[in-house]
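Page 42, continued from yesterday. The earlier attempt failed because a stray header line got pasted into the input along with the sequence. Redoing it now with the clean sequence only.
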Amino acid sequence: MNNLKLGSYTLTLAAISLASVAMGGKVQQPQDGPPRGGDQQMQGGPGGEHRQMRRMGPPRKASLVSIPMNVLDSELKLTEDQRGKIRDVMDELRDKHESMRPEQGEERPTAEQMKAAHAKMEAAEKEAIGKIEAILTDSQKATAHSLIQTITVFQLAGYPPMIDRLGLTEDQRVKIAALAPSEKTEDEDVRPFSRDEMQAKRKEMRAKLEAILTDAQKEQLAKMPMRGPGGPGGGGPGGQGGPGGGRDGGPGGGGPGGPGGQDNGPGDGGGDLI
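This time it went through. Structure tokens are written below.
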């Protein structure tokens, strides 16, 4: 199942969030309701003044540590025991994330330090995903794999992954999941994107997604906040949302640049991007 992830660069939100937090910024907790998107930007890393020259990495995709707990619970039909264990895993990941934050007043980390911190967070996230997989049954793992693909498509289309509100049919779920990029495609397409390229890719995915939805579903989706193409804030690492998993809510969606709460979707903030 490849750790229920979609490709080599889909280690999602936590690692990118770490880079933003490493700049000394305060972790932000999301407010109630869906996360904000649009073309907002978080503070970037070194070179932040060169805003006209910025490039964006490939869009991040969903993973088991970025799916909101309410969606994970309803889709996988988690037991009380499973919910508790998953919350423990996410609390542990959050603690590791927090432990990597520099103390206030510390010098801005170098590129090498940020790269090392990124690798460390990737390892922690891989470990967390493995632990969550071990908690799930084989049937739940299969459902989770399809769920990740579906949420990924919504994110690539610029929509919040609130699939539990749309009443998708099984046929729609299968068709939407099939739109998710294959591992081979992602491995080959890891170059930086310009904003125009990102917008074009988002527009293309949105058209494919909306072709599967009913008029009523599209009307409901239109009421949800759109998300911009994202991109590294001002030339440095973007303000991507971190792993979900507030201690009172399990794996929630990340807000801009930090861990999120239980009811928000994976944070995609202004930086990109999972």
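Notes: The radius of gyration is 17 Å.
Reminder to self: strip header lines before submitting.
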